[in-house]
Target: Cell division protein FtsX
Amino acid sequence: MKRWLYQHRYAFAVALRRLLSQPFSSLCNILVISLSLAVPIVVAAVLDTARPVVQQIPVSAEVTLYLERNAPPDAARALADTLRTQHAQEIDAIEVIDREAALAELRRRPAWSEALAVLPENPLPDAVVVTLRQHPEIAATSERLSAQWQALDAVESVQVDSAWVQRLQAMLDFLRMGLWLLALGVAVVVLATVFNTVRLQALTQREEIAVARLVGATEAFVRRPFLYLGAVTGLISSALAVVASWVALQPLNSAIARLAASYGTQLALQLPDTVSLLLAGIVVAILGALSARWSVTRHTSF
Model:
């Protein structure tokens, strides 16, 4: 056991010595990896902040049917009775909005009274507001019913009041998928950078490795310092990426705070939780070690 610990301690010391022996090259590689890692961390912070905000937005399960302007006066109530009968299991409430009542309501508002006074006739249509029952598939139900009701006689247009929230949720899902693709690209950057670093180290120490083999060094003994080199590079890069992400979030938080204040709320971007950051750092270290193993195996076969 002591011998095993000594070998790993020796390999770790050799890896640090090799990392410090070429400070400029090592710093460039670490900066490339850390900046690549900082991008998905910032994107994840934005998504984690936006997701609860979207979930707290009240999604109205209302579908508004606007009738044609030349529809008979009783057409809206007849349509409401028909919908209540045919879709009793899906409808929670129905409200008929008379065009004359809607016009009178607008005329009581100072911003609209002068504009409506010059109109020769009522430009508003009768409307039927349908409130659907809440259930997990409310989005699909509202889309299906709105498409079905659009084809009804005397109905000119149908509006789903929660459509913009659904579009926002779809956009967040799209960005979340893009985050996974971005993380995959970052993994490729980590593999390529560590692979090239270890390749140069292996070629530089070609004679040293050959001599070590002549005196009986095993392949595991030869590879172990390179594996630690890849893992240490990944860990340092991960820590630097977290610091860079935190620094990048400060001006973003200042801008988003001013935007949120204009809507009378508070909002701040936060880094992902500590456990997620630690797991990400471990994954990057493992990727660095695997890339180093692949590189040293490929370039020390002599």
